[in-house]
Design a protein that fits this description.
This protein has 17 helices and 12 strands. It is α/β, with parallel strands linked by helices.
Length: 421
Amino acid sequence: MQLQTQALHAGYEKDSQGTMAVPIYQTTAYEFRDVEHAANLFALKELGNIYTRLNNPTTDVFEKRFATLEGGAAALATSSGMAAIFYAIANAAQAGDNILCARQMYGGSLTQASYTLKRFGIEARYFDVQNPSEIEALMDGKTKVIFFESLTNPSIDVADISAITAIAKKHGVLTIVDNTVATPVLCRPFEYGADIVVHSASKYTTGQGLAIGGILVERHDLVDFIRSNARYPQFNEGDESYHGLVYVDVPLPLYTLRARLSLLRDLGAVVSPFNAWLFIQGIETLSLRMREHSRNAQVVAEFLEAHPKVQKVNYPGLKSNSNYANAQRYFQDGMSSGLLSFEVESLESAKRMVDATKLFSLVVNIGDSKSIITHPASTTHQQLSGEALIACGVLPGLIRLSIGLESTVDLINDLKQALDA
């Protein structure tokens, strides 16, 4: 089936009532048939619902549908995108290990890697996403993950996914790709060698800023990469918390299984059934919205590129952009999502311009149906030093736009009056 059809039907078999809409199973727990049934579920001898911290019928549809869209084997939903990133990394790395991260990433991901994971004993080392050749020099026997974004936020770079994953495969290292900005409508990292994909479902998946949630997806046949891989003993040796369960021997997608049974079980960053249901509604129109977001952003980017007060526009749909070739290679029909950024001459100019907008809302979110404007240096990336800001592409005069579904005539009129204010 084509993606738009999958977005409407994948993962759901109508219940006994024949409901067309996926029901919301707003429940904490589930009744077992008897003691033996309960014991079998806990021992993984049978599959079924135990407790909503581990699984839920509504969330199950969301996970299956999203995994299908990404072309993956299975998914695990979480309470936020940051939780999905943490689980994806913590599933592979532990104290004493290191991970390699692109410098050009969302500020929350950078601070999690640089500070929070450091307190867990996991070191983050950084490479330039535009220069994958830096990766090999950073690797050693303790490297467990290479983490990057398919379309970076807010520098708007397009990663050379194939080049990065080829290096990772050469050294037996897992790759984790944050595909939030591109979405599976525009980019499918598994087709270019990625192992794990993560998303903040709070963005384009819901599409209207209605809910917080995240999801991680694993590719098909990941077990073949992990089996006997000395970097990942936690999958090849017995799990003491599950009576010696060896994940590579279980006939289920192993990465999301371990994340569910170990991390979700013990840390509990579970998505609510209602939020999972909201994400399902968003998925139904995701492909239609991403095309419109991309079309609108292209028009706005072309306007900004021609404006005398704009020094630089970061949008890979522009032929003048250094990421244009990668966008044509990795993104569906060259569409480049609704996120763009641009630079004006100074911090003061940026603040004045942002404050002068009337239609754009000053919000630290992206992927909403309504257009959003953000000054990253003073908000999403404020925790970083001046040197770190420059390294990740966030200059004082950088402004980020999440282009919504309004008329481009109105959006451009608002930006024009704000730039001229």
